[in-house]
Design a protein that fits this description.
Largest sheet: 9 strands, mixed
Helix content: 25-40%
Radius of gyration: 21 Å
Number of helices: 13
Low-confidence stretches: none
Number of strands: 19
Structural class: alpha/beta
Strand content: 15-25%
Shape: globular
Length: 464
């Protein structure tokens, strides 16, 4: 059945333009844009966006639905997590399939396909976590790229779980230099951090705030530097995930000044929360345990500046929620046993719009770091990340004047607390289309599990 939707009288904002335009959607794609009143389009559905923004659906390039960690698993399923994402104006997620040590990449990818297929309210893609670099794994990387899984994450942290040593990292980078893949790096010196963890616990320093104190900013910077130089030796591009520290930003900026294909992402928690949250009394700080950790407030200025200068290119969430009761409290008496991760997939677009309201970034930069650049970085553009003829009709009608208070009582993520409880923000999603299908209509959920489909990706479209 052919279907047509017209979105009228809105301000269309992309990474490159702001124009008052009507948008015609046909059969799940953007068919045309035209100046208001210039076309007498007929349609099955007409959406009045007067006084509203019409923006591309967000692309969250870093989520962990149903992620196993520390003897438990992330509390959002692909069903609950993608529904919450839609409520927050995100229409594509890129989640991480996990290779376990001793298993193949294929086994990990198949397991994640089984979790997601038929359950997602919005479209999804996968990165591959590479935990066991060997000759077979390296060959498998080539095959995954052919299937549209074109990025591979490695960890310099979590010895005994995900950790790769420098030789394994170099080999994977060399392979990606040949096959066009993009290596994503969790850059923290996990070997040194584990020493500091054991020393802290031996001193009786067991509260959540010590999680931040042992995962030192210098150890993030050191690992970032090392990852950059290994990538330079391999001749491969590098994408550093969840950058949180001034010193790590400086390493990225230096490498980019040298002309290297080095990219960085930060997350809302590093822009809006601080180490003070980790120090909240009565174990409340456990809600804010994630890695890299929240930093002292003075680091935030460096992150915002890097987002403005494009030394950081993307804001993703690293959405990996664990309930406070029954999951985070596994670490009472031992901060190292607190599951690492925060909920945020529903909050990202609104928090970044608040940054627009506060004058930290422009409207177009908001769309660039939340929609267009993640789509380009991970081979989804222009199918995703923009509003242009031929693009998927992943479109959000956004009310820039509506006010809301973030709260666990009203969010849609499957977790019993909000990292932003009580925070007032201006701006709210009103209507969401995914491939032309209404998922949210006037703040009512109309989507369905199974609408979202796996979306193969090309290789990175953001290289120098």
């Amino acid at each position: 059945m052919s279907s047509r939707t017209v979105i009228r009288h809105g301000l269309v904002i992309t990474a490159s333009d702001e124009i008052h335009a009507d948008v015609l959607v046909e059969d799940g794609r953007v068919a045309a844009l035209a100046t208001p009143h210039s076309q007498s389009w007929t349609a099955d559905r007409v959406i009045d966006a007067t006084g509203k923004y019409v923006i591309p659906g967000g692309v969250d390039a870093h989520t962990h639905m149903e992620m196993p960690f520390g003897g438990t698993r992330a509390s959002d399923t692909f069903a609950t997590g993608t529904r919450a994402a839609a409520w927050g104006g995100t229409t594509t997620i890129v989640d991480f399939a996990v290779q376990s040590v001793g298993h193949t990449l294929r086994e990990g990818l198949d397991a994640w396909h089984a979790k997601a297929e038929g359950n997602c309210a919005i479209d999804y893609a996968f990165h591959m976590i590479v935990s066991d670099v060997n000759d077979e794994t390296l060959k498998e990387m080539d095959h995954l790229i052919e299937e549209g899984v074109t990025s591979f994450k490695q960890f310099m942290a979590y010895p005994g779980v995900f950790y790769s040593d420098d030789g394994q990292i170099l080999r994977a980078m060399q392979r990606s230099a040949e096959n066009g893949g993009l290596i994503m790096m969790h850059a923290e010196n996990g070997i040194a951090i584990d020493v500091l963890v054991q020393q802290a616990l031996a001193r009786g320093e067991t509260d959540p705030r010590y999680h931040g104190e042992v995962r030192k900013a210098l150890l993030e910077a050191e690992a970032t530097h090392r990852a950059i130089r290994l990538a330079q030796v391999a001749g491969a591009p590098l994408y550093v995930v969840h950058v949180s520290a001034t010193e790590a930003v400086a390493e990225l900026a230096r490498a980019r000044d040298e002309g290297l294909n080095v990219f960085g992402e930060t997350c809302p928690q590093y822009l809006f929360l601080t180490a003070d949250n980790l120090a909240e009394p009565d174990f409340e700080g456990a809600k804010y345990v994630c890695s890299t950790p929240l930093r002292p407030r003075e680091h935030q200025a460096s992150l915002w500046r890097a987002l403005r200068t494009n030394d950081l290119q993307v804001v993703s969430t690293d959405h990996c929620p664990f309930c406070f009761t029954g999951q985070k409290d596994l670490g009472r008496g031992d901060f190292s046993r607190i599951p690492n991760g925060l909920p945020g997939v529903e909050n990202r677009m609104d928090l970044l719009h608040q940054a627009v309201v506060d004058g930290r970034i422009s409207r177009r930069r908001w769309i660039e770091i939340a929609c267009a650049t993640p789509a380009r970085m991970f081979g989804l553009y222009p199918k995703k990340g923009t509003i242009a003829p031929g693009a998927d009709a992943d479109i959000v009608v956004y009310d820039p004047h509506a006010e809301q208070v973030m709260s666990a009582a009203t969010h849609h993520m499957n977790v019993d607390y909000s990292a932003y409880e009580g925070k007032r923000v201006t701006g709210r999603v009103e209507t969401v289309l995914s491939r032309g299908e209404p998922v949210i209509v006037q703040r009512e959920y109309t989507g369905r599990a199974g609408h979202g489909v796996f979306t193969p990706r090309s290789t990175c479209q953001y290289l120098n």
